Amino acid sequence: QVRVVESGGGLVQPGGSLRLSCAASGNIYSINNMGWYRQAPEKQRELVASITRGGSTNYADSVKGRFAISRDNNKNTVYLQMNSLKPEDTAVYYCNAQDVIRGGSWGQGTQVTVSS
To answer: What is the pLDDT of residues 17-41, one digit of tens each?
Structure first.
């Protein structure tokens, strides 16, 4: 079993920044893709950003130029640097780690609230 734990959420004013972290641990074979998703109240979960083991990235149009995803393969950790935050970025942010043998695992989520 692969365990995924997020951290770094909180309350921030519009225009502010936050950095989320996500660490995968446990019975890991090899983590390939890692990604951040978010779910706002009464909305479906959506992809925010993803990154392959080789470092290729993909972003939702709504966060391009403001968010940056990165990872440390040695630590099975992925980060999401969020800048110029907007109220519409408010959501629970979830991390997903795809192990090539174990499949996908989700974290419990971390709340991000952007409000003045």
So the answer is: 999 999 999 888 889 999 999 999 9
